[in-house]
Amino acid sequence: MRIIPILFLAIIVSEIYLFVEIGGILGITVTIFLILSTAIAAVILFRLQGFRVLTETQLALSTGTFPVTPIVHGFGILIAGALLIIPGFFTDFIGIIFFVPSLRAVLTRVILRKVMRIGAFNVTATANSPSEAGPIIDGEYSVKTSCEHSEAATSLAKDSDPDTSENR
């Protein structure tokens, strides 16, 4: 998992570098216009392709099949939209790649394969789990006041005293 912070830092550095280089070549006004236009295009493409994926999902569900392909495409569209909304030329380039359906299918399969391999986990029981804690004994209790306790003790003492027993 050390790769994620390094990757995040590399993306930030590359975005700053591309801003400076493209801003130096095209000018600040054109650079800002390009950034804003990619964000607007992302919203439009996200809506259009999102509705298409929603329709494919409903069609698959109506035929009684699990919509694996539409879910994978929806995941790719979600990544593409997020990357295009983030300001920057590198993330915009990757986002546009995710909006191309054939490339999106390949990339999402690769990403999902990596996530499934990394995300695997095992569940084991420990000695402190409730199933191994031993038998459970259910019981009832009541709280006796000191007066009731002394009366019960006196009654018990009379029952066990041989002088007061019925054997006389």
Offer a few descriptive terms.
mainly alpha; 168 residues; elongated; 0% strand; single chain
How would you describe this protein?
By secondary structure, this protein is mainly alpha-helical. The mean pLDDT is about 80. It has a domain of about 110 residues. It contains six helices and no strands. Helix content is about 70%, strand content about 0%. The radius of gyration is 36 Å and the shape is elongated.
Summarize the structure.
By secondary structure, this protein is an all-alpha fold.
Question: Count of helices?
Answer: 6
How helix-rich are the residues, as a percent range? over 70%
The major β-sheet equals:
none
Stretches with pLDDT under 50, minimum 5 residues: none
Termini separation comes to 88 Å
Integer average pLDDT: 78
How large is the radius of gyration?
36 Å
- Residue share in β-strands: under 5%
Overall outline: elongated
Strand-pairing-aware structural class: mainly alpha
Find the count of extended strands (DSSP E, 2+ residues).
0
**Pattern of helices and strands:** HHHHHH
Please render the helix and strand layout as text:
Blueprint lengths: L2 H24 L1 H35 L5 H18 L3 H11 L1 H18 L27 H15 L8
Helix pairs in contact: 1-2, 2-3, 2-4, 3-4, 3-5
